[in-house]
Design brief:
Blueprint (H helix, E strand, L loop, with lengths): L12 H19 L5 E2 L1 H9 L5 H15 L4 E2 L29 H15 L4 H8 L3 H11 L11
Parallel strand pairs: 1-2
Helix pairs in contact: 1-2, 1-3, 4-5, 5-6
Amino acid sequence: MIHIELPPLRERGGDIELLANFFLEKFRRSINRNIKGFSPSALKVIREYPWPGNIREVRNVIERAVLMAQGEVLEDEDLLLDGELAEIPSIPKSNQSLDGMIKLSDMEKNTITEALEKTHWIQQDAAKLLGVSKRVIHYKIKKYGITHPRWIKNR
């Protein structure tokens, strides 16, 4: 048996950038998005982040960024890194309980709806974005009565 010691990804800055570019190209093609690359500030974030989840985390962050990006270049704000708080969708007061607390089910419904909107109501892409299976997203859509005019079953 040969033992090869490989330093953690955070100690291999050049590898991180290569991996990020590899995953960008992979997901850009598979999702059919016209994303040309990373902005200088996004590359700086990629190089400086410690990547505790190693390669899996790089893959997940880049996949999410490609799905969610608004422009043709990935910006640092497109890179939602673990440990950062994602924006919580605003929930109207009518969806709050009497003591002003937000209901978990309302947050889940709003998060699913937001993911669907960001993926142009493509359920499979929303499921990927949320890190759940297609079966789970279908169940939640039915549970919360989420509809869209393009969906055949909702017409």
